[in-house]
Specification:
alpha+beta; binds flavin-adenine dinucleotide; 4-stranded antiparallel beta sheet
């Protein structure tokens, strides 16, 4: 076992982790980034369509309109102070990325090019606005490369292919660092730190159809929860409307931003009925439900469970002309602006989107919930916003809560750079005055015992079998549309799966080096925890809001539910689940409504597009 000491540890090397590391190191902190993937393999690299900022390069735009869209997009569960910080800082953050060398697409005058995206409007919902700054459909890839280079330049230390498996807390509860396993050797490492920031991304892999990579298993979220930190708003998981049929690979909203339209089995542009004003560019939850409804009522393509997304120039230009718009697109525009999307469809489907429509279905995409933080990425542990000193979270793993009940497209990349940066700055300040919390006598004993249990398991059930069963039940019963009966069934199934994970597991590899068999089985335990918390949070919220849509409670209920859900692990449960001890729910944390105090336009109202 090796022990390392750094003032600041950042777990995760996606956009949020790298931005936090960069700013902590710029502020003078000695920083190490630990990542189970090589940094530039992080999932931020998959982000396609763009990063939102009210630059106003192509249409008039203002941060306050961006903040409004964020609050409305989040179905008023968004904390308004966070939306204000996000929208106001986004402009600076994007210009900073440009100055770091990020190769954004350009307008003919040389400004950063912007495109339309779902739910982005001008003047408090009046009409669509071009706000998404993009580098073709590889925006996340460019952000990741740019930030990684900056971190290297700034002497950030990297521990690549180190898998973090536990959070270390001192006897008095203070945060003292993390335990990691080095993939190449199987050796355990203790990272002792004054400040620890989690930026471990999402957990779309709890669902069967998802845009998320295999690595998105929610480890960071689950392991802090197991060490006594609550998780917030876990019932809100975004199902994106357009994934490649059966594969789930994302087709960016940028396709609709460029004029692409959704078409049902009758050849109708059905979004005209669901969102008469901005049609295909309504927010994601609205479009996903519309697709679900079309399919349910037999209007899928050939009566099956998919619809078309059509970006062929003929179709797009016909709708532009009908809407009285002067712009037109050519096959060349589509090739230049959406190269990766075209590649995906040509390679995986044998469909050429320049000539024919793409078959799509909704795909599990983004976790709005996560580790609760304030706008400085400091982790808070209760409804009174009590800060746990030394622990931070940023990016998809965190719940600021800037996305509320439904995230707007392009707001995740903004979230990473805005709150990653603020977290990094806060850490740099904190470590100047804080001491190292003492390490417990054997900080890795408990997690090593759990790994030994999994490594030596000799039951009958392989992790893949449990994983498939979890993903199926989550997609079917805790997906786009939910009801109590389905979710209760899901909960029973999940608890049975978790028992089998504890008592009947079988893995093949008992070795030390690159034991992915062992770590995947451990990750599955994390996902089972998160799936259970998602389900109990969803069962508890007896209303429909944003991405949480209940058949048995179809209306939004602002009187009772303008509150965040906090879920705690019962005291004494330890890091492994125990029989009939179940998570505890608290719904006392109020949504921040500070913008509404001065401007009544921010008050909750019926959400139409
Ligand atoms: C296909 C796709 C397209 C998208 N397009 C857009 C878009 O156009 N605009 C937008 O705003 N958003 C988009 N998003 C969402 C956005 O990309 C993600 O929410 C965001 O990139 C997450 O960044 P992150 O830094 O929080 O985490 P990630 O980039 O996922 O990084 C997580 C990091 O944590 C590390 N890690 C995880 N677990 C451990 C562990 N146990 N130990 C050590 N390290 C660990 C990983 O190695 C990785 O480095 C898209 C998402 C997808 C899936």
């Amino acid at each position: 076992m090796q022990t390392h000491q750094f003032e600041a540890i950042i777990v995760g090397a996606g956009g949020a982790g790298l931005m936090a590391a960069l700013y902590a190191s710029k502020g003078g902190a000695q920083v190490a980034v630990i990542s189970k993937l090589y940094p530039t393999r992080s999932h931020t690299g998959a982000a396609q369509g763009g990063i939102g900022a009210a630059l106003g390069n192509l249409d008039e735009d203002k941060p306050i309109w961006h903040a409004y869209d964020t609050v409305k997009g989040g179905d008023w569960l968004t904390d308004q102070n966070a939306a204000k910080v996000l929208a106001e800082t986004a402009v600076d953050a994007v210009i900073e990325l440009e100055h770091m060398g990020l190769p954004f697409d350009r307008t003919p005058e040389g400004k950063i090019s912007q495109r339309r995206f779902g739910g982005h409007t001008s003047n408090f919902g009046e009409k669509p606005v071009r706000r998404a700054c993009h580098a073709a459909d590889r925006t996340g890839h460019m952000i990741l490369q740019t930030l990684y280079q900056q971190c290297i330049k700034n002497n950030v230390n990297f521990y690549d292919e180190f898998h973090v498996i536990d959070l270390i807390r001192s006897a008095n509860g203070a945060v003292a660092g993390v335990v990691a396993i080095e993939l190449g050797t199987g050796e355990i490492h203790i990272f002792h730190a004054k400040a620890t920031l989690f930026a471990t991304g999402g957990w779309g892999r709890i669902f069967s159809v998802t845009s998320n990579a295999h690595s998105l298993t929610g480890d960071g979220t689950a392991l802090v929860y197991r060490r006594g930190i609550p998780l917030q708003d876990m019932e809100f998981f975004q199902i994106h409307p357009t994934g490649i049929y059966k594969l789930g690979i994302l087709i960016t909203e940028g396709v609709r931003g460029e004029g692409g339209v959704l078409i049902n089995g009758n050849g109708e542009r059905f979004m005209e009925r669901y969102a008469p004003k901005i049609k295909d560019l309504a927010s994601r939850d609205v479009v996903s439900r519309a697709i679900h409804q079309e399919i349910k009522e037999g209007r899928g393509i050939k009566g099956r469970d998919y619809v078309y997304l059509d970006v062929t120039p003929n179709t797009v230009n016909r709708y532009f002309a009908e809407a009285g718009e002067t712009r037109r697109i050519t096959a060349e525009d589509v090739e230049n602006k959406l190269p990766d999307i075209l590649d995906f469809c040509r390679v995986y489907l044998g469909v050429d989107p320049v000539k024919e429509p793409m078959p799509i279905q909704p795909t599990a995409h983004y976790a709005m919930g996560g580790i609760p933080t304030n706008v400085d990425a400091e982790v808070v542990t209760d409804e009174n916003w009590t800060v746990l000193p030394g622990l931070y979270a940023a990016g998809e793993v965190a719940c600021v809560s800037v996305h509320g009940a439904n995230r707007l497209g392009t707001n995740s990349l903004v979230d990473l750079v805005v709150f990653g940066r603020r977290g990094g700055m806060k850490i740099a300040e904190y470590v100047k005055h804080a001491d190292y919390a003492p390490l417990p006598a054997n900080p890795s004993a408990e997690i090593e015992a759990e790994l030994t249990r999994i490594r030596n398991s000799s039951g009958k059930t392989r992790p893949g079998e449990l994983r498939a069963a979890m993903q199926k039940v989550m997609m079917e019963d805790v997906g786009i549309v939910r009801n109590a009966a389905g979710m209760n069934t899901a909960l029973d199934t999940l608890r049975e799966l978790r028992d089998r994970h504890q008592t009947d597991l079988l893995i093949d590899d008992r070795g030390q080096k690159f034991n992915t068999d062992l770590l995947e089985a451990w990750e599955l335990g994390c996902m089972l925890d998160l799936a259970e918390i998602t389900t109990i949070s969803a069962l508890n919220r007896t209303e429909s809001r944003g991405g949480h849509s209940r058949e048995d409670f179809p209306n939004r209920d602002d009187e009772n539910w303008l509150v965040h859900t906090l879920v705690n692990r019962p005291a004494g449960m330890g890091i492994a689940p125990k029989g009939d001890m179940h998570p505890e729910i608290n719904v006392k944390k109020q949504v921040d409504r500070s913008l509404e105090k001065d401007d009544p336009r921010f008050a909750p109202k019926v959400r139409t597009y």
